[in-house]
Amino acid sequence: MTRTAVMVDGGFYRKRAKRLWGDKSPEARADELVKYIFKHLNKADGRTPRDLYRVYYYDCPPVDKVVYHPLKRQNVDFGRSGTKRWANAFFDELKRKRKFALRLGRLSDSGINFQLNPEKVKDLCSGKIGVDDLTEHDFRITFRQKGVDMKLGLDIAALANDRLVDQIILIAGDSDFVPAAKVARRKGIDFILDSMGGKVSPDLMEHIDGLEYFIANDPCVRAQGELD
After folding, report:
1. Is 23 exposed, middle or buried (0-12, 13-18, 19+ CB in 10 A)?
2. What pLDDT digit, counting tens, does each position of 184-213 carry?
């Protein structure tokens, strides 16, 4: 048996899953994640089946501050938002799943604000549109996560140094995880990346042992053409 740990960049997964499969309840999204992970586990490496060691899920608590919206010219209280309730319910669902370990970082106290979509910034500067053409949906909340990358790196180092697993599958799409991949591979761990069909930076591709995802055969994806 190939002893396998699965690590999930939660922010990446939630954003990508919503784009691919639409909005879902916290319960349905958590069940969806489990089913997706088991597609990996049900795929044998040659003739050797994979045995799940543990699923590590990394994320941050939702924004709960009052943030000023420049277009609406008023404050938005995220502490009372449906987004916060959804995220907390989703985390609670994951805590109930067998062999799931939830690793939550925290949000930076500074840098939480609304930012205008870069494409809209270009259109504004070029004169294609004016401020009156902007809508609420052209802005998105931005923030900095703290502690998530560190927790993931420490977990990989522990798994690799103690030889607790033979293989790590990382569901992510960020080159920030290159140092973690290097640590695992130096210790002889087979390091597989799942980008959920998204593009992978050359820096990250260089430091993995394989790319594996289960998106192209999804009928919803074929219909939407969501492989970018």
Report:
1. exposed
2. 999 999 999 999 998 888 888 888 999 999
